[in-house]
Amino acid sequence: MAKEKKTEKIEVKLTDLPGIGPTTAAKLESSGYGDLMAIAVMTPSALSTISELSESVARKAISAARKMLNLGFEDASEYMKERESIFKITTGSKNLNALLGGGVETGAITEAAGAFGSGKTQLAHCLAINVQLSREEGGAEGKAVWIDTESTFRPERIKQIATARGIDPEKALKGIFVARAFNADHQMLLVEKINEMIQNGEPIKIIIVDSIIAHFRAEYAGRGMLADRQQKINRHMHELMKIAQARNIAIYITNQVMANPAIMFGDPTTPIGGHIISHGSTYRLYFRKGKKGSRVARMIDSPNLPDSECLFFITEGGLADEEKE
To answer: Residues 176-180: what's their mean pLDDT?
Structure first.
């Protein structure tokens, strides 16, 4: 009986909600709000603006969606069962996987901050390939989406990693969707496009944003624009988390660093974005260059993992635990 009820939930359409007809449903789907969860987590004013419904009708539709999805409290044992659907995508390094509790987690945002050349983008290239692997190999049997804000994506690097690992390079490239974000608003719009792609049947399992802060930092310069910048970043992070949890997708974002004159000893750099990015990220890594060509990754924030660090190397075949000759 329980299985039958679950099937009914999946088959429910937007037009089954009060006040939403075929025209309104089509409008919502074209805006990237094509399922019940997307409606259930909206505010009445936001739904009213997009659908041109009155706020009272929008409120009824949202309430109905929440009832159909049974959004409310549940005991922790049931929540634990739901988390069994979460899986980890391998980084290619056993050390880094261990630091992350098995790999980059779906349904969560993993942030990697660090100076230029610390390995953030190298990990992104590896994840874009690894997500296509089978579950047994540490993948997700899906595709990657790369939002490129700093012209850092290199198809040549994808081909190099794939070839070194015995993976068909052309197949690896076809499993990655890349979009160049030209400004902050375009960057946010691309996240909405990803929802459309998923609805059209693309098996996207990881979203990479490299880097999350570049456009916001350039377009909202100075203290006078700081509040506007943080508000937009906050919205962007919430949209990423929403898609991560609703679709069980891994989100990997890279972040820049800046010098902090208040730090007198040790590494004087600190991630940009303030509390908005730090609170919005589930797992936070800090990368830096180590000795003899190594890279050091440190876990600086996690809901369940200890603060620790590990070494890894960047090789022709991606990330490894030791430097290849």
So the answer is: 97
CA–CA separation, 139 vs 135, rounded Å? 5
* Residue 6 Cα distances to 76, 122, 262, angstroms: 20, 40, 54
Residues, the chain, total?
A: 325
Residues near 29 by beta carbon (within 8 Å), at least 6 away in sequence: 14, 199
Among 152, 153, 154, 173, residue whose Cα is nearest residue 162: 173
Residue 156 has pLDDT above 70, yes or no: yes
pLDDT for residue 111: 97
d(CA 131, CA 271): 26
pLDDT score, position 4 = 39
- The mean pLDDT of 40-67, rounded to a whole number, is 90
Contact 232, 273 (CB under 8 A): no
What is the CATH classification number for the domain harbouring 112? 3.40.50.300
Separation of alpha carbons 141 and 9, rounded Å:
25
Pair of tokens at residue 210:
């490299």
Q: Does residue 74 form part of some domain?
A: no
* Position 271, amino acid: P
Query: Cβ distance 140 to 206 under 8 Å?
Result: yes
Q: Model-level pTM?
A: 0.80
The CATH number of whichever domain residue 54 belongs to comes to 1.10.150.20
